[in-house]
Every structure is written in structure tokens, then in C-alpha cells.
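Table 4 source record.
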Amino acid sequence: MRVTFTDRCNGQRHEVDADYLLGCDGANSTVRAQIGSQMRDLGFEQRWLVVDVATDTDLRQWEGVHQVCDPVRAGTYMRIGSARYRWEFQLLAGESADDFATLAAVRPLIAPWTVDVPDSEMTLLRVTEYTFRAQVADRWRRGNTFILGDAAHLTPPFIGQGMGRACAMR
């Protein structure tokens, strides 16, 4: 098959001959559309708060992903760089990211990790809302063209279960 694409860095158009095409092009997949696949909604939708904080202070935490299994407000914590940390918390009914726009507003949520870190040593970099959804493509291939990753399934990435869960449903 011949694949035509445009280099997004310089706008140059290219053609490549390939035996297979792997469409790993995300939730809004062009390749998925080209093979005539549609996303099937699995009926799961949750709003989450995403908070990124910079600090040079060592939070003295395990370097893996922490999952907070709180039935009232589930959460996730991870280090995402040498001085950047991310927290994700399930938003409660009536809450929005705007409610957590300052370090003071976020502080109660991140306190278990930052109790010994003064506000002056932390910088709030990002606060946004993200909606987790569960969807699976109704077909993952046409001929030698395949879709993978978010092009084939959208599942909350709690402890990397997204792909395993989507494959189990397939």
C-alpha cells in the first residue's frame, strides 16, 4: 500500500510504500475514520481534576504511580519529571477546575504528599478538567491497516489497565 502524509514540522508531503499501516493516532484517529470504524460508547464517563505542581523539594515518595482508593474522592499521584508532580482527583458533583485555580485551593487535596513543603517552595503549573470515557472501536483493522492505542479504545488509564481491559472486551 502507498501511504501519503504531510510532515507537520515543515509542511512537506511524502509518500511511503508499506506492507502494513499502524494507526496509533489517538482519540480523534484519522486512520480509524479511513477504515470505516466507529467508536462504541461503553457508558462510562467521569470528570477528573488534573493538577501539576513544580517543586525542587523531594517529596520522598515511591517513584511509581500512586492510586488513592477513596470511595469519596479517588485519586492518582505521580512524579512526571525531576521537579514536576501530577495529581488527578475525581471531581465531585458541582465542582469544576475553576474551584481549584490556586495553590491554596489545591492544598487540601495534595496535603498527604506535601504536608512538610511550604507554599513558597511550590509553583502551581496547571489545573484543568479531564473527562475519562470508555469507548471501543467496532473494528480494529481493514486489510493490512490496524488501529492501536487510543485510536482503538478509550479507557481510563488507572494503573495501566486501559489496553488490557479493552482487549478483554474485544
